[in-house]
Amino acid sequence: MLKTVDPIWDRLRSEAEEAAQREPQLAGFLHAAILHHETLESSVAHRIASRLEHAELGDGAIRQAFEDAIASDPEIGLSIRADLAAVLDRDPVAERYLEPVLYFKGFHALEAQRFANRLWKSGRKDIALYLQSAVSAALQVDIHPAVPIGKGVFIDHGTGVIIGATAVIEDDVSILQNVTLGGTGKEQGDRHPKIRHGVLIGAGAKILGNIEIGAGSRVAAGSVVLKSVPACTTVAGVPARVVGRAPCADPSRSMDHMLSEAEIFDPVI
């Protein structure tokens, strides 16, 4: 039988082995979190469950819920790998897969939401909501389990990120800390933002209501966005207005928050 090729998992195991040799006092932790496992999915589920352990529901029960989600949806494994690749591509602090798998709470919160989303879609809404609450308490990231999230998403730092139940996040989106994708009041039904492919959302931005942030757009740090944003544009301000063009097809990958003079123009949303 041919061995399954999994470059990310192989590299992660190699990084863990090297770290254990350099820091023998961490060998037990590295073995439990990574080297003991046969798959990347199992390792990620174990590590996140250990961070979410709670008196009412221990890490064993949480890990079993995660494993149930993984077993019912092979797409989760593809998403985990794409998200890890996104971290290394976009975060200059991350030099190894080891860092996000072990330590980055933005990555942990994102993957926990993927597990909870699968459980939510399977009808296990109570455990999905419990997991949302546990992630919010432990990691300060609150994403409703109903939210569909694409692949290659990067949540940098994570603290203070809030995403409402009817939001949509497509592939290759980057979200910085203290971002809110929320509603505008007590409206019912579809009431949260739709974030299209390749969008970059700066720290502290608030995007409110059932509006669309077009593909390849940038939302500047601290902006309050109340109206839909065209594709490939940059918005800034309170309330936000269009201030320029996005510099590339996927600003989420370049992580470039600066606006050059050549990109500036004056239309208002």
TrEMBL record:
Reaction equation(s) it catalyzes: L-serine + acetyl-CoA = O-acetyl-L-serine + CoA
Gene Ontology MF terms: serine O-acetyltransferase activity
PROSITE patterns: HEXAPEP_TRANSFERASES
Any one Gene Ontology cellular component term annotated for this protein: cytoplasm
Pathway recorded for this protein: Amino-acid biosynthesis; L-cysteine biosynthesis; L-cysteine from L-serine: step 1/2
Annotated keywords: Acyltransferase, Amino-acid biosynthesis, Repeat, Transferase
Stored Pfam families: Hexapep, SATase_N
EC assignment: 2.3.1.30
Serine acetyltransferase N-terminal domain mapped to chain residues: 8-112
InterPro entries, A to Z: Hexapep (IPR001451), Hexapep_transf_CS (IPR018357), LbH_SAT (IPR045304), Ser_AcTrfase_N (IPR010493), Ser_AcTrfase_N_sf (IPR042122), Ser_O-AcTrfase (IPR005881), Serine_acetyltransferase (IPR053376), Trimer_LpxA-like_sf (IPR011004)
GO biological process per UniProt: cysteine biosynthetic process from serine
Family statement drawn from the similarity comment of this UniProt entry: Belongs to the transferase hexapeptide repeat family.
NCBIfam families: cysE, EPS_EpsC
Name by which UniProt lists this protein: Serine acetyltransferase
Organism from which the protein derives: Terrihabitans soli
